[in-house]
Amino acid sequence: MYKKSNQIFTLYKPNPIPKPRKNLNTSRRNFHQCLKWMLLVAQCFGQIPVIGITDPSARSLQFKWKSWRTVYALLNCLGSVCLTGTFLGNLLVNGMDLFSSSKKPLGDLGVIGTVLASVAFHVNTMIINILLTFAWTFNDLFLILISTGLAVRFQQVTAKLRILKNTKQVDLLLILLVYSEIIVGQNTSLDDWRAIREDYNRLSQLTKTVDDALSFMILASYTNNLFFILVQLFNSLRSMKDTLEKVYFFFSFGFMIIRTVSVSMYGAWIYDESKEPATTLNSISSDTYNPEIKRFIDQIKFDTVALSGKHFFYITRGLILSMAGAIVTYELVLIQFNVNLLQDGTSET
Length: 349
Description:
By secondary structure, the chain is mostly helical. 70% of the residues lie in helices and 2% in strands. A two-stranded antiparallel sheet has the order 1-2. Helix 3 (68-94) crosses helix 6 (119-164) and helix 6 runs parallel beside helix 9 (243-282). The longest helix has 47 residues, at 190-236. The chain is globular, with a radius of gyration of 26 Å.
C-alpha cells in the first residue's frame, strides 16, 4: 500500500498486522527449492546425477562418481550413443531418404529385433527411447524455467525504478515484489540510482554466467528441434496409410512446434525485460536526471543481455522468424534432393 503526502510516496504495512511481513519472509523460497521436485523427477530418467537436491540450499549439491545416479546416467548415455549410431547407420545406408531413415527414429524395433532376435534388446531399446524422449523435453523445460527465473529478477529491477521515479500508477504486483525494501521521495540521492544500476549490472553478469554454462545445451536444443521439424515436414509430403499415422504425425509435429516456440519466447523474455528499464529511465524529468541515470541508459543500450547458443545466435523474438525462414529454405532443398522419392511414394498409393 502507499500514502501520498506532499509529493512523497511512502510504502507501509497496514496497521492491524504484525504478521504479514513475517509470513512474507518465511514463505519465500529460493530458486533451488522451487526446482527440486522437477530435478528429482529428472533423476528418475537418468538426468542431473547429483546428490543434495532435497536440501534447502543449492550449495549442498555434489557430484560423485561412486553413486547409483552417476551409473544410471552413464548407462543412459551409452544406450543413447548406441541408438544414435543405429540411426546414423540407417541414414548412411539409405542416403538422403530421410523418410526411410527416420520413420522409426532411434531404434527401428522391427529391423533390429529381426537381426538380433533378442526380446531383451527390444525392451532395452524401448526403455532407452523413452529416456531419450524425456531428455529432449526436459532440456527445453529446464531452459524455460531458468529463463523465467532470470526474467522475473529483471522485472524486480524495473519495479524499483518505477517506484523510485515516483510513478503515480504503480502496479500492486510490483509493489509486493519490493515490499518493505524501499522508501521513496522526489529528492532521491545519487546513491539510490547507483544502487539500482549496480543491481542491474549484477543481474547482467549473472545472465552471462548462466549463458556460459548453458550455451551448449541451448545450441543442442535448437539443433535437435530444427532437425526433427525438417524431418517431420518432409515426411508429411508422403502419403499416410491410416488414421493412426495421421494422428501421430499431427500430435508429434504440433508438440515439437509448441516446444520450440515456448523455449524461444521464454528465452526472449530475458532480453525483453533487460531492455524494459530504458523506458522508465527515458521518461525521467530533467530535474531528476543525473550521471548515474545516463550510465544506466548507456549500459542498457549497448549491452546485449540474453541467452545464446555458443554466441552463434541470441534468443530474441526475432529468432522465431529467422528459424521459420530457415525451415522453409532447408525444406525446399530437401524436396529438390528427394523429388524421385516423393514421386515413388505417390505412385505407390
